[in-house]
Amino acid sequence: MRKDVILITGANGQIGSELSTALRELYGAKQVIATDIREPKEQNTPFEFLDILNIERLFELVKKYQVTQIYHLAAILSATGEKKPKFAWQINMDGLFNVLEVAKELNIVKVFAPSSIAVFGDQTPREHTPQDTVLHPSSVYGISKAAGENWCQYYFKKYGIDIRSIRYPGIISYQSAPGGGTTDYAVDIFHSAVKGKHYTCFLKADTRLPMIYMPDAIRATLELMEAPKENITVRTSYNLASMSFTPKEIGEEIQKIIPDFTFSHQPDFRQEIADSWTESIDDRIARKDWNWRAHYDLPATTNDMIINLKKKLFESSPIN
Question: Using an 8 Å Cβ cutoff, are 149 and 237 in contact?
């Protein structure tokens, strides 16, 4: 087991809950401290309550456990952020600043502060979006992530903090619930299909967006953080690619396994957000710097999601 002690903010979220497990397998259960403003629904220990806006509490926990790495996942996502933009900006930016200041003052070895495809806007090339490009995000979530990327690079250059980041595509997972993002339909649609319900998507049928299956997202995170420091050439945030598809394509892929599944489309305010995002990602720099390769495409993801959701929703249910 590794000797590092890791603190995760937002550990009860979609990524945090699964990343906690993966990190404990690498470092040992007692070496990974999960924190969140909410108590975990399932066992996730050691666990500490943390409001990411409370920098004194963050200092206290880092000192208490002698933390050497921070994975900062606490954030308000795109769709949720549009309902309370000032609050989303406060959580996303002040929370990041608190992590960066603690890392600077207490000499944290590594920080992971993820970004998102939400940083791209309507002036960004939509196909094979390059690593270095125009960032004119349309959502408060994207605005905060774009600003956060630059602050991370600033703290690396100014203070030498080893901060690493990934621009996550939409994440698909059967283990945890969506967290209020524009790409959440790609999780919700599976739940409806497995439960035998019709699904109404909040995006148009032909809205193509980049996505990634959670096992690939977790593996990408760990591979980036394990890469030698001298290999890391991007200190804003790495482009990351896996697959791109539309709501219609994922619905038809599900129908290959569940033929009776039906779906339709009723776009809402999230359509405008999705229309400003990219369709596909150029991640050649991540492939070069730390040998990133996706393992799951849409058919493999669909098959694995349905198998595991059926187990999760039905086989674990008590028999009446």
Answer: yes
Distances 301 to 140, 198, 272 between C-alpha atoms, Å: 30, 20, 26
DSSP 202-231: SS-TT--EEEEEHHHHHHHHHHHHHS-GGG
User: Does residue 212 come out as left (phi exceeding 0), alpha (psi in the -120 to 50 range) or beta?
Assistant: beta
What CATH number belongs to 6-170+213-239? 3.40.50.720
Chain centroid offset of residue 289 CA: 20
**What's the confidence (pLDDT) of residue 295?**
97
Catalytic residues: 141
pLDDT of 187 higher than 50: yes
Domain with CATH 3.90.25 in the chain: 172-210+242-276+296-315
Spelled out in words, what is the top-level CATH class assigned to the domain 172-210+242-276+296-315? Answer: alpha beta
Residue showing tokens 């206290």:
60
